[in-house]
Amino acid sequence: MIAARPSASSAATPPQVRVGDERLIKVSPAAAQKVSSLLHRQGRPNGVLRVAVVGGGCSGLQYKMDLQDQPANRDILVESAGIRVVVDPKSALYVTGSELDFVDALQEGGFKVRNPNAASSCSCGESFSA
């Protein structure tokens, strides 16, 4: 699930980010369309999708996604399918090579991460182990 999180007001200096490519994370056309729609609905047409890995879930790790106004310091910025995605350096270790997809279905729909680094995942599809 994507949660909106207000971004901290930026200082006069822009955040220091590194530019990555789709080898870090790739966005499918369906996911790009959904993210773009959500960003426009929130009035953030130039916003970014943050993908992070945090502790929790049945398998030990889970994905967290937020829509934000801009990247934060030290983020890795990837442009894929017309969407700007940011990943913090720690999460990058877990998501490298992943693809973000969106399935528009009543059951088992929503954002899906295909992660080649996941050693196992739980039956709910919300968490994984590396």
The CATH topology is Hypothetical Protein Aq_1857, Chain: A
CATH superfamily: HesB-like domain
CATH class: Mainly Beta
SSE arrangement, N to C:
EEEHEEEEHEEEE
Quaternary = single chain
Structural class of the secondary elements?
Answer: alpha/beta
Number of strands: 11
Choose one word for the global shape.
globular
The portion of residues forming beta strands comes to: 35-45%
Number of helices: 2
The major beta sheet can be summarized as:
8 strands, mixed
Summarize the structure.
The protein is α/β, with parallel strands linked by helices.
Task: Explain what the structure shows.
The structure is a single chain. With 130 residues, the protein is an alpha/beta fold. It has a single domain (16-129), classed as Hypothetical Protein Aq_1857, Chain: A, CATH 2.60.300. It is 15% helix and 38% strand. The protein has 2 helices and 11 strands. The chain has helices at 29-41, 89-95, and strands spanning 2-4, 18-19, 25-27, 48-55, 61-68, 76-80, 83-87, 98-103, 110-114, 120-121, 127-129. Strands 1, 2, 4, 5, 6, 7, 10 and 11 form an 8-stranded mixed β-sheet that branches. It has a 3-stranded mixed β-sheet with strand order 3-8-9. Strand 6 (76-80) and strand 7 form a beta hairpin. The radius of gyration is 14 Å and the shape is globular. The two termini are 21 Å apart. The mean pLDDT is 87.
